[in-house]
Structures are given as C-alpha cells and as structure tokens.
Design a protein that fits this description.
The structure is a single chain. The chain has 187 residues and is an alpha/beta fold. It has six helices and eight strands. Strand 1 (28-31) and strand 2 (34-36) form a beta hairpin. It is globular, with a radius of gyration of 15 Å.
C-alpha cells in the first residue's frame, strides 16, 4: 500500500534466471506514484480494510494471471505470487481461494484475512501449494501475531510452510528475509 510496481521489481535482477518476473500495480491510486489493492486505516491500532475493494482486486489479479499466461506463454503450473504487506495479503487470498492458479506464494510481512477463510478451497486442493512466510518480530504495522495466526491456520489445514521470523525487523524486507526468499525460490 502506498508504493508501486517498481518497488519490488527492483529485486528482479537478483532472482533466479528461470523465472519470468512480472510486477503488478494496485488498481487504487493513493497519490503520486502510490497505489494499493484496497484502502486500510489503522486508527484504532489494528488494520481495518474495505473487504469489497480487496475482493475486486483479487478478481482483477485472477484475470491478470490469465492474461499474462496468454501473453507470455509460461507454464501455468509454475506460477508463484510474491508480495510484501498488501501484496502478501493478495497472494494469500488468491492461493487459498484458487490454488489451481499458483504453485506457491511468498508472503513477506503480510496477513491472512479472516474474511477469506470461509472461501478457501478444500484442503486436498490446497496441499499442493508451496508457501514461504516471512515476518519481522518488531513489525509495528502488521504485527507478528498476524504471521503466527496464518501459520496456525495453514498448519491446521495440512499445509507445510517455509516459515521465517526476523528478530528486531520492522515492516520491511531486510537482507536476511531476501536471502531466505532467494533460497526458497532456488530450491
């Protein structure tokens, strides 16, 4: 939220050559070169979001994945979604509701929306997903509790995740997190 598609795309040159890297811009304009997938406010100390905007963005990304597959003819069984904060939220939302569209997701400092859980695909379809979860223990924007909650939910549904916490890290992608992401993508 509040960044653009160029932010995380700056990591693309460090990713394994076997990947076609596509970076998507959130559909909501929040300011000059600032975009988001949905509006959220933290006035009461916790994230309050407009779920209907998230739903519209989720559907838009599902369509976008299909359009990119047609345009670039990549293996549809090898799609990974990677996202930080809202991008991570969107990755969870797509993977859990449409696991047939992705092989795996990397969620960095994100959260699993409680509103998505009732729409999750059956466990048998989810088990194929490969997941990387990373979160800083000192994240004041989306606290580590969100990562713990997601990890517990995924474990309850038989999903094995590559889960990583970073002591003292805030709402950021630090060097250790990026190194672990690269190791996961290289496996």
């Amino acid at each position: 939220m509040g960044s653009n598609e160029k932010d995380l795309f700056s990591f693309a040159e460090n990713l394994p050559d076997k990947y076609l890297v596509i970076s998507a811009r959130g559909p909501l304009t929040l300011g000059a070169n600032r975009y988001g997938w949905f509006h959220v406010d933290f006035r009461d100390g916790k994230p309050n979001m407009k779920f209907e905007e998230q739903e519209a963005s989720r559907k838009l990304l599902i369509t976008f994945i299909g359009q990119m597959q047609q345009k670039f003819s990549f293996d549809a069984n090898q799609v990974y979604l990677c996202g930080f904060s809202q991008g991570g939220i969107m990755s969870y939302s797509i993977a859990l509701t449409h696991p047939e569209l992705v092989k795996g997701i990397a969620v960095m400092s994100g959260r699993l929306l409680p509103q998505i859980k009732p729409f999750a695909a059956p466990d048998a379809k989810l088990k194929k997903l490969d997941m990387f979860i990373s979160h800083g223990t000192a994240d004041a924007v989306l606290t580590i509790d969100w990562a713990h909650s997601a990890k517990d939910y995924l474990k309850e549904h038989g999903l094995i995740t590559n889960y990583n916490e970073y002591a003292g890290a805030g709402h950021e992608i630090n060097k250790a997190m990026f190194t672990d992401l690269l190791a996961w993508l290289n496996k």
